[in-house]
Structure formats: structure tokens, C-alpha cells
Amino acid sequence: MRTETLIEKENKEIAKQYKELLRISYQNLNAEDKKLIRLAFDTAVDAHKNQRRKSGEAYVFHPIAVAKIVASEIGLDATSIASALLHDVVEDTDYTLDDIERMFGETIARIVDGLTKIAHLKKDMNISQQAENFRKMLLTLHDDVRVIIIKIADRYHNMLTMDAMPEHKQVKMASETLYIYAPLAHRIGLYNIKTELEDLSLKYTEPEVYRDIQEKIEHTKEEQQRYIDDFSDVIRDSLDKEGLKYTVKGRMKSTYSIRKKMLSQNVRFDEIYDKFAIRIIYESDDQNEKFLAWKIYSIVTDHFTPNPIRLRDWISSPKSTGYEALHITVMGPEGRWVEVQIRSERMHEIAEKGYAAHFKYKHGEQKEQGIEEWLNRLQEALESSNGNAVDFVEEFKLNLYSKEIFVFTPRGDLKSLPKDSTPLDFAFNIHTEVGMRTRGAKVNGKLVPLSTTLQSGDQVEIITSDSAKPSQSWLDYATTARARAKIRSSLREEKKLIANDGKEILRRKLKSQKITLNEDVVNKMVVYFKLQTSLDLFYRVGLGAIDNQKIKEFASSYNNAFISFFKNKIRRKAIPENIDREEITSKYDLLVFGKEEEKLGYILSKCCTPIPGDDVFGFLSVNEGIKVHKKNCPNAISLQSNYAYRIIQAKWIDSSQEVFTSEIKLSGIDNLGLLNEITEIISDNMHVNMKNLNFSTDGGTFTGTISVVVKNQSILKKLIQNLKQIGGIEKVIRL
Ligand code: MN
């Protein structure tokens, strides 16, 4: 009997909640809307009937609470309210998406699907996965932006009811909320919910700090009210005289933002002087709204000195979120600066409820356009999601938090851009095509570099040209996510096109070198040219950076893969630097001159006294014949520069090793091990010098000629004999 009573009680409460939900809805609901909500409500109650939350409460109270946030605090339409009621149905119960579509139609099914997908994203993730999570979440916006709003409401309610959860989960959820949901709520213009999310997060991440600040705020409440009363007293008469209907309220800074300020300025609570702002909310019809704002402004500043650099006119230029108000900072009572926010009731509602409230004041097509514009803006952020997810979040968060600037088009239309935007950002903001064709920019009539940082109030004109296109350097000039994404993807496209051409060019050129373009060849070329990918290779060929000459060089090294190997071997056999000087002096006893290595008469110069083995050159003197100087002789430079025509090459050689050159022709089967053996034999065993080599391969066979320098016939004979011993060598002959 007791359980029955409890259920009865619950059912009563559920019925009460339903009436409440309809009553608090911000948008007007017609009969059809109510029918839809009723069906969604009953479906949710039925679907969740066997579920309870950790707190013991029937589960359905959660989706109802989320629907109430959506209906009242955000002020969305019946479709959104129904979707909010159903947001956990597919995720947690036996109802399928098909059931939802059949019962509620395509739109609601799509929204519920989006919400289910978000719920499916893995929960245990590191920060980059969280970022990826976030990105995917945004991607669902392709379908419907209402997904994200309901998700924020869902998160908000979860944050409000986290007490029953274990502490580590609280902290995790709170961190995620700070990292992802609060910035997102801010972007969407849900300022109140953003503040709530931040304060709730602080409550769980730093409970003591949170409690401490809360207590202090409580303590200063009286003082604050007194201050506001003092302030109102001063302006009341003047406002009343104008017949204005208004309220003056204090607006305390959020706990989170006080905490942030204490940290960033390293100050105590009582050292923060601007803990609250004063809000004047006035009644007005459409026509007089702006006029009255400035009238109040003028009354306030008549009585209190304004700080001229702290005037923010969000009425003439609403924020991209739709926020409108006039903010001024004045020297208030007690000689303290205080911010005064002047808003009409309509503006106040928009500020409190966010963009959705905007739609209430717009009708039909305008209403739809409003939603569409908003969707487009979020879409732009989404399009920058090519790169890595963390970058994307960072970039996105930067855009979220950076202050906006306002600039004008040549026709005087106002555009809002993030702070630090450049003309290039402006161009891409106007239209992708304008961005892509940008050749230059004029700011306030003057030609400026594309890297110029725009300031609020600038009039910006983009000069376009059909032949202009994005270049790599544009990435240094563009700061907005949108522009950078467009430039990047254009550069990638361009690269792909060039690479496609490059691949064909390469195929042709290799063919003329008798090489077929295949994966192996491509891989070898990537390594040869020290590149990363085949795309890089084709791109460089397409650009001409890898030209015919370089391809030929590769071809010959590929055709004679062993030659470089061969040459390295020989180079390694060269006389090392640190060889014994004594030995050189005794061995290199004969000085020869010129290319022909002729033996001529000479004298060693006295200025540098060269000894055998030194690097030397000959100088044809008028009276003394050839004089030999060291190459590093102090006189050498002057001689070489003034009498270059009298310089003759000179070189020490070993007179016991006079040699002759001979050519050997080899042929056989092409393999790398074979060549190793040839190397061993020629340079290790025979003390033979190699002057020239020429090898070519053809279908697994090779032929080659080697010019060798040997001391006598017998060594040459022995060399040929030894080479013939190598397996694979077919023929060795002396030419
Ligand atoms: Mn939920």
C-alpha cells in the first residue's frame, strides 16, 4: 500500500509539472503546439516509467526539467520542448528512433537522434578526445542547432542535480562543462546559463573557494543595496520628470568571474571594486526604444561623470549573439567607478534568454531567417574543423572569448568580426568568393597590407581580381577560423590539382628514361628528394621545383643504384687526413705540374718553404722559372688574384708508383651483392685507383666500363683475373 501511495504522489507531481511546463513557456503555444507537447510528455513518462535517477527520484523528472529550461529560460518553440522531453528516450529506453519519427515526424526525430549521438560519445577521454567529442557535437549542428541548445539545457540540469554523484564524477563533469559547455552557451548568447554553468562548475572543482566567495557576496549584499539606493536617489527625480517607467537593480558579478578576477589581478575579494553593475531597465515601445536609452544615458551622465573610454553602444551595433544594451562606466557615489547598463525590457529579455528570445519579436519569414543566420554562423565555425581537434577547440574558444570589433563595408553596412581581424578576415566574412579573389585592401580609403589589424569603426574595401588566389602567406594574415579554413582548403585543392598534373609529367619523363612509374619508384623518389609523401613529390614536379634535370639525375642513380654505393666505397678509400706526415714526405717525393702531370724544373719559394705532401701551386716567375708556394702561403692570394694566368697546378706524387690508365669492360647479371664484391676486389686487394666508371642496367643484366690506374701490366692482369672469379660476372675484358 505504501508504494502505491508513493506512485500516486509521483503521478500527481508529474501532472502538476505538465501544467507548469505549459504555463511557463516563453513562446505562445497554440492548440497544435500543446497537442505535440502532450504527446511527447506522455511518451517520456511511459518510456522512463521503470527508471530512477541516483537520487531515487523518478527519471522522467529530469527530461521534464530540461524541457522547462528550454521552454522558459531559453524560450524555444514547441518542437524544441517536445524534443527536450524525448531527449533521453532513444538512449535509455526501448523506444527506437523509428518510433519517434513515426510518432513525432522527421524534425523531432532528427533532433533526438543528434542528442542520442552525443550521449553515445565515449565518456572516459583525455582532453584531446574531449575536444574531438566537442567537435562531433558541433557537427551534429549540420542537422539542427536545437540539438546543441537542448544539450546545454540537459547539461545545466545535470549540473544542478549532481549532489548524489560520486565526487570524482562531479569534478570531471564540472571540468568538461567549463571547457566545453560554458563557452558554447556564451557563443549562443545564453549569458545567464553560461554564468550558471561556470558558477556550478566552480562549486564542484573548488568547493572551498566557491563557498568563501558566496559567503562574502552575502555579507556585502546590504552594502551593495545601500549603494544602489544612493545611486538611484540621485537620478530618480530627473528620470521621473521625464515620465519614464523603469527599475534600477544591482547586478552582482558571478562567483566564477570574481574568482577569475582575483586570480588574474592577484587581489582579495574586498579589493575588487567593480563587483556589481547597476541596471536600469525601462519600458518602451518600438519607436522610442533607442531614443529613451540615450535620454537615460544623458540623465545618468548629468549626475555622474562618465568614463569616456568605457562607453559600449550595443544598441546601434548589437553583438552577433543579438545582445543589445548601452553600457557606461561612471564615477558613482563614494567616488567609485560603477558600470551602468541601460536596457529596454525587450533588450533585457533577449539578454536573459539569449537569441531565442529574438525570434519572439520577429515574425514568419523574419523569424526563420533569424534562425538560419544563427545556424550559418555556427556552421562557419564547424567548417574550420579540418585540422586537429584540439587546435579547432582552441581556435573556436579564441573566437568565443575574443572581443568583437565592428567595421563598415564601403556601402556602410556593419560587420562584426573578432578582435585582431585583418582585411583578409573581412573579405572572407563578406563572401568566400570575395576572400578567394582578394588582391588588396583599402582601410578608410588608404591601401594597406593584408596583414593590417582592423579597428572598430574602420571602413574596409576589398580589391578583388579574377586572377588572384590564396597563397601560403595568407595563413599568416588571416586570424578567423573561417578565413583560415577556406584558405587552407583552397591551398590543398590547388596542391592536389598541381600534383595531378605533376604525376602525369613525371610518368612521361620517367618513361623517356625507361623507368615505369610504380609504387616502388615513387617511394624511392620520395626518399631521394627527402620528401614526406607522394603528394609532395607530384606537387613539386607539377610546380617545376623538381625539373627535368633532377628527374634525370634520379633516373641515372636509379638505373645504376649501385654506382653511388660504388663511389662511396672509393671515396672512403681516399687518404685520411690524419695520416703520418713523415710517411707522406717520404712517399710523395715527386712534384708534377699541370693537368698532364708533367715533370718540370722548379724551385721552392722561401716565403713559405713547402715540403713534400703540402698543398702547393706553381708560379711562373720572370727570372727564376717555376716557383712553388704553399696554397696557404700569405702571398698566394695576391699572386693568384693579380697573376692568375701565371699560376700552374702542382701536385706531389709517389715516384715509385708511376702508373698508367687502362679501361676494363665488365658485363654480367645485375645484383647488389655482386657489386660489393667488385668494390672489394678493386679497392681493397689490388691497390688500384679508379678514375671513371660508367654502368648501365637493362632487364636484369648490366654492362660497365671502369677506368683504372695501375702501376704495371701484371697488376692489371691479376685484377681482370680476380674480377672474373666473381659469381655473376660474365665477361671482363681490357679495351
Ligand atoms: Mn539527459
Which radius of gyration do the C-alpha atoms yield? 42 Å
Mean pLDDT: 80
Helix content: 40-55%
> What does the overall shape look like?
elongated
Strands of the largest sheet, in order across it?
1-2-5-4-3
CATH architectural type of the largest domain: Orthogonal Bundle
What is the total tally of β strands? 19
The CATH class of the largest domain is Mainly Alpha
Largest sheet: 5 strands, mixed
- CATH H-level superfamily of the largest domain: Hypothetical protein af1432
Structural class: alpha+beta
What binds here, in terms of ligands, is:
manganese (II) ion
C-alpha termini separation:
116 Å
Count up the helices.
30
CATH fold title of the largest domain:
Hypothetical protein af1432
- Poorly predicted spans: 381-402, 569-579
Instruction: Provide the β-strand percentage band.
Output: 15-25%
- Counted up, domains total 6
Could you please describe the fold and organization of this structure?
The protein is of the alpha+beta class. It has six domains: 213 residues, Hypothetical protein af1432 (Orthogonal Bundle); 145 residues, Beta Polymerase, domain 2 (2-Layer Sandwich), CATH 3.30.460.10; 116 residues, Ubiquitin-like (UB roll), CATH 3.10.20.30; 91 residues, no CATH class; 72 residues, no CATH class; 75 residues, ACT domain (Alpha-Beta Plaits, 2-Layer Sandwich), CATH 3.30.70. 54% of the residues lie in helices and 16% in strands. It contains 30 helices and 19 strands. The longest helix has 35 residues. The relative contact order is 0.04. The chain binds manganese (II) ion (MN). The site of manganese (II) ion has 4 residues, from loops.
